[in-house]
Amino acid sequence: MTGSEASPAFRLxxxxxxxxxxxxxxxxxxxxxxxxxxxxxxxxEVYDVLRRGEADAGFVRLPVDAADLSAIPLxxxxxxxxxxxxxxxxxVEQVSGEDLADDIVLHPLDDPLExxxxxxxxxxxxxxxxxxxxxxxxxxxxxxxxxxxxxRLHHRKDLTYRTVTDAPESRVALAWPEDRTTDxxxxxxxxxxxxxxxxxxxxxxxxxxxxxxxxxPRKTDSGGxxxxxxxxGKGGARGAAKNARGGNGGPKGGAKRGKPRRSx
Length: 264
Description:
alpha/beta; 7 helices; 22% helix
């Protein structure tokens, strides 16, 4: 293996909107001696960062743009439209593309959504980034359709967002260079896939511990030999039942055994 063994830390890139805190917390619990360094990266640069070895793995949005990167899809985001709070859309819970037909729909150059046809009316120019598009929405110049995580990231008190039911969706994945699938990358893959510490594919549990956890030791008596299963009638549940009745099948209360008295 190369890469992670020589690196003092695991470097994790992530694009805007992705929140890796849950996985970082699990990593710190399982591998406290290996620091995890977060590397925030613009969506347009994350693949180059991974190829140059500036991060061991990264959270990206699909599709991955090259065959030299491996990726595991993680989840799909809800798509929303960001509008001013006094916009008519704010009065409902969700809208369709047709509901935006009269609006100028901004289309930033870093848009992660793959449109066949953008709804609404096009703007004269495309904003350079989603953050710029949100600023234009706040200024009353159109609306913008984005993954919900980006709407939250660029939240403003004078704006709100609503679900768009028929818009493309953004899928988030974990990606890494295929030729640098290091041990630490495998550890992180296990975390994002929900594997437990005792998983057979995990590396955080020492092999000896993993082996011993699968083999339950046999109980032994004071002489060191294996304890035998009690013979019928001499122990176990049947023996306990006899003792509870007061002896060998006698009546409750432990009454003495003897010949029955003859009635006069």
